[in-house]
Design brief:
The complex is a heterodimer of chains A (367) and B (314). Chain A is of the alpha+beta class. Chain A has eight helices and 22 strands. Chain B is 72% helix and 2% strand. Chain B is built from 13 helices and two strands, in the order H-H-H-H-H-H-E-E-H-H-H-H-H-H-H. The chains are: A alpha+beta (367), B mainly alpha (314).
């Protein structure tokens, strides 16, 4: 089921009644989620991603704009009539019911033509439980399950009524690191098997990049960029997106463009075409540095962290906006751990220019 | 391990509380049991130097006593009627209060008023509300003037005034008034507990149920009530314990006569019986009745706990 948001805005009334200013959680948000894909809604906390999810779900009504499932306008529809399954951040499993009863709960609500016989309900419940691999835990109470198992039960409960859209609110945030890796693979597998259009919310870019078909990056209620994870990473539209994606994060410098050359401090690191002269931000991905004795960019070496395959060179430069510059260098390059300074040259496609005012990307051609 | 000196300090700090408890709680309990098993024990006779034989005579006497059986009947009847009614009403009011935003605070205050009002005062107001003034009762010249607001309302809607509590009123009418009074008086505490319980239920359960298209009735029966069950159990159990100690409410409405003028003592309860026995220097009988009351409350509470084991989800 294709999901489309058209100019959706959500404003909450102000808490402070005197000032009367509304809090705009989501501002004129438009995007389309293709059928059968896994979408990650990504952004820092408070950026409106959960609100967006709840609006798709129907628990919150947009102040303006429309939401479509396929060709149907569902904007005014209550959640139960939208055919959505929602997995809450802390699962919201009914604590007094067993796993089986929890999974059966949505089925028992079905009325009229959709009503199922007891055998059908049980069959569906067990099928779904098998899909998320909890069919051996059916008689346990949620309190007797681990976090990962509870998560699966919550997904099973959302899936059992065969929703048109599956929504997951921060599905991995309550799990420990190891389980998080495992569960995100699991979510990917379940989504592939069921082919249900799935939207999940996360503040962890790693999580979103690793399993999503598409990511939607949001900031302060505004969609910043939409695209395939790799495409967004390789081609960010603005400084925020560039900074938000990638670990270690992108290195940002105060720089300038003069006569077709990109300067960091006094050092010209790249020759470019099609950029007006002026002050810019220069962003360089950690993997965009090449260790080069004759390279244009000189930095004071602070530390070299050995990671096995690669080394992470930590250095500093007065023009850097980050406290330290992190570059990932192949271990074969042979870094001198005791040197005072290191020199780099830069991979052109890993270097981005951003406008100082708007922080928008300035695209260029490499000379 | 605590050092020897530390230990003494600990006991020293505990001493005031322990001494008070021993003198005013533990010893009276032991003494109650002792007096209950001493045949015909009486404070007056102790002063006269009499001694008493050990036995269960007090219990036998109490159980055979017609007045005691009537007290027991009143107590049990009031308990069985008021606890379920007040618990159910409190649940409905709490759910209603919890579901509205507008006027929630003022309504909460109104519902809580009985709790901070003296129960004798409430009783007197109730007595005035249910009042009927009549004279020359049972004669041809009988005059009935209704001054109570309840009867005024009944008459306004074309009904016939009921003699609720005055001379010549029926037992059923008396009990009805008592039930209304006790339920009303018991509501605030229960509403408070249940409202607290409701507000501590995670809203996400309701969101989850909403997404799954659960009907309101099913949400109430399958989510609200089970999640509230620890509070409900608490309210019912304390309700029964309080109910078996019913006494002041009767005094509040009927005064020390414990019944209408022509049937004094008709609405007496277990605690009233114990009080009467004490005031006539029959401490042995009072103790025996107290132990019987204790036994009844114990059994009822055990049954309550047993039932709640199956029904309550902690």
């Amino acid at each position: 089921m294709k999901v489309e948001l058209r100019n959706v805005t959500k404003a909450f009334p102000s808490r402070n009644k005197k000032s009367g200013e509304e809090v705009i959680a989501v501002n004129d948000c438009s995007f389309t989620i293709p059928d059968g894909k896994l979408i990650g809604l990504l952004g820092p906390s408070g950026c409106g991603k959960s609100t967006t999810l709840y609006m798709i779900c129907g628990l919150q009504k947009p102040t303006k704009g429309q939401i479509f499932f396929g060709e149907d306008d569902v904007t005014g529809l209550a959640p139960e009539n939208r055919g959505v399954g929602l997995v809450f951040q802390n699962y919201a499993l009914y604590p007094h019911l067993t796993v089986k009863q929890n999974i059966l709960f949505p089925l028992q609500n079905l009325k009229g033509a959709d009503k199922l016989s007891k055998e059908e309900m049980l069959k569906r419940a067990y099928e779904t439980a098998k899909l998320v691999q909890i069919d051996e835990l059916m008689d346990r109470k949620p309190s007797e399950l681990s976090g990962g198992q509870q998560q699966r039960v919550a997904i099973a409960r959302a899936l059992v009524k065969m929703p048109r859209v599956l929504l997951l609110d921060e599905p991995l945030s309550n799990l420990d690191a190891r389980l998080r890796l495992q569960t995100r693979e699991e979510i990917r597998r379940i989504q592939r098997e069921t082919k249900i259009t799935t939207v999940f919310v996360t503040h962890d870019q790693d999580e979103a990049m690793s399993i999503s078909d598409f990511i939607v990056v949001m900031k302060a209620g505004v969609v910043q960029q939409i695209g395939k994870p790799q495409a967004v990473y390789d081609d960010p539209d603005n400084l925020f997106v560039a900074k938000f994606l990638g670990t270690p994060p992108i290195n940002v410098f105060n720089g300038s463009v003069k006569g077709g050359k990109v300067y960091i401090g006094e050092e010209a690191v790249l020759s470019v075409n099609g950029v007006n002269d002026g002050e810019v931000y220069v962003g360089i991905r950690p993997e965009g540095f090449i260790l080069d004795e004759n390279g244009p960019l000189g930095c004071k070496l602070i530390n070299v962290e050995v990671m096995g395959r690669d080394v992470s060179v930590v250095s500093s430069n007065p023009a850097s906006l980050n406290p330290t510059i992190r570059s990932i260098i192949n271990a074969d390059a042979g870094v001198d751990h005791d040197a005072e300074t290191v020199r780099f040259s830069v991979k052109p496609h890993k270097l981005f220019l951003f406008d100082k005012e708007s922080e928008k990307r300035i695209r260029f051609e490499v000379k | 391990m605590v050092e020897g000196k530390q230990k003494w300090k600990a006991w020293l700090y505990l001493a005031p509380a322990i001494v008070l408890l021993l003198v005013f709680t533990v010893w009276p309990i032991i003494n109650t049991v002792r007096m209950a098993f001493l045949e015909g024990y009486s404070g007056l006779k102790v002063a006269g130097g009499e001694s008493f034989a050990f036995g269960v005579g007090n219990f036998v006497k109490v159980i055979k006593y017609q007045k005691f059986l009537s007290c027991l009947k009143n107590t049990v009847l009031l308990c069985v009627l008021t606890v379920p009614i007040s618990s159910l009403l409190a649940l409905l009011v709490a759910v209603f209060l919890n579901s509205i935003k507008w006027l929630q605070k003022p309504l909460q205050t109104i519902f809580f008023l009985p709790y901070v009002t003296n129960s004798i005062a409430i009783g007197m107001v109730f007595a005035a509300m249910f009042n009927i003034v009549g004279s020359f009762y049972g004669t041809d010249n009988e005059i009935i003037v209704t001054a109570g607001i309840i009867n005024n309302i009944i008459e306004f809607f074309g009904g016939k005034a009921v003699n609720w509590i005055n001379y010549g009123s029926s037992y059923a009418a008396n009990i009805t008034v008592m039930v209304i009074y006790i339920v009303w008086n018991a509501l605030p505490f229960k509403i408070l507990i249940l409202l607290g319980g409701l507000q501590s239920i995670n809203k996400q359960y309701y969101d989850a149920a909403k997404v799954d298209g659960t009907s309101r009735r099913r949400i109430f029966a399958r989510i609200t009530v089970p999640l509230l069950s620890p509070m409900l159990a608490y309210v019912v159990i304390t309700g029964f314990i309080g109910g078996f100690k019913e006494y002041t409410s009767i005094i509040g409405i009927f005064g020390e006569a414990m019944g209408p003028a022509d049937a004094a003592g008709r609405l007496n309860t277990m605690v009233g019986f114990i009080y009467d026995a004490l005031s006539t220097n029959n401490q042995g009988r009072a103790s025996a009745a107290a132990l019987i009351l204790f036994g009844i409350i114990l059994v009822v509470t055990l049954i309550n706990l047993q039932v709640s084991k199956k029904r309550v989800h902690y």
